[in-house]
Automatic annotation (TrEMBL):
Gene Ontology terms: biological process: double-strand break repair via nonhomologous end joining
Name used for this protein in its record: XRCC4
Transmembrane domains' residue ranges: none
Superkingdom of origin organism: Eukaryota
Pfam families on file: PAXX (PF15384)
Gene Ontology, cellular component aspect: nonhomologous end joining complex; nucleus; site of double-strand break
CDD domains: HD_PAXX_N
GO molecular function: molecular adaptor activity
Annotated region described as Disordered, given as residue ranges: 168-187
Organism: Mytilus coruscus (Sea mussel)
InterPro entries: PAXX, PAXX_N
Length: 200
């Protein structure tokens, strides 16, 4: 049987998080992997938690009537990414509903003890901080790449527009032809046409 760690990591559900609204309240729902697969809900003050081992996770899959564990975990991952989640509370118990259409998956979570709350709040705080930092670094790299591509494009366009001197043209200025000069021999003056003998 595949270990819990392999199941969770291969399906990429070991570190999911999403913000869920319940009326005017907002909650962060998140998962993490320790010796068990842990699901938590918190509003920053209160914390609800459940821990599942491989057998308990298998029982949850059977209750959801989903044929395979891969499909089951893939649905959970997609719903977290889409924030397709809802929460409800009864006393010290919270219910996380994954998916809002047919085939929903439900998890019952219970109020965490003070020590558990501290550990889980630290985990999600540093995870979100690291995620934000990583996104800023990726954004900075993307912006630098865009700036480099823009500069290269501008240089290429500039090179295409710079055609240089046209082939076959003489850059030397054409001197204006002086009045009365011969077209065939520009250095000599035109001869006046003979008018014949003029009689007084």
């Amino acid at each position: 049987m595949t270990s819990l760690k392999n199941l969770v990591t291969e399906s990429k559900v070991e570190s999911l998080h999403a913000v869920v609204k319940n009326g005017k309240q907002e909650f962060v729902c998140f998962t993490r992997l320790a010796t068990h697969w842990i699901i938590c809900i918190t509003d920053g003050a209160e914390m609800y938690i459940t821990e599942l081992d491989a057998e308990e996770l298998e029982s949850c899959r059977e209750l959801a009537e989903i044929s395979s564990m891969d499909t089951y975990l893939a649905r959970i991952r997609k719903c977290f990414l889409d924030a397709d989640l809802s929460v409800s509370f009864v006393g010290t118990r919270a219910t996380l509903t994954v998916g809002k259409s047919s085939g929903t998956i439900n998890f019952d979570l219970f109020e965490a003890k003070a020590a558990e709350k501290k550990v889980e709040l630290q985990n999600i705080l540093f995870r979100l901080a690291n995620t934000a930092t990583s996104l800023e670094v990726d954004l900075e790299k993307a912006n630098k790449t865009i700036d480099t591509l823009k500069a290269q494009k501008s240089q290429n366009i500039g090179g295409l527009m710079d055609f240089g001197p046209k082939v076959g043209t003489n850059p030397a200025k054409v001197k204006p032809k002086k009045t009365g000069m011969s077209v065939v021999n520009p250095t000599s003056k035109k001869r006046k046409a003979a008018t014949g003998v003029v009689f007084d």
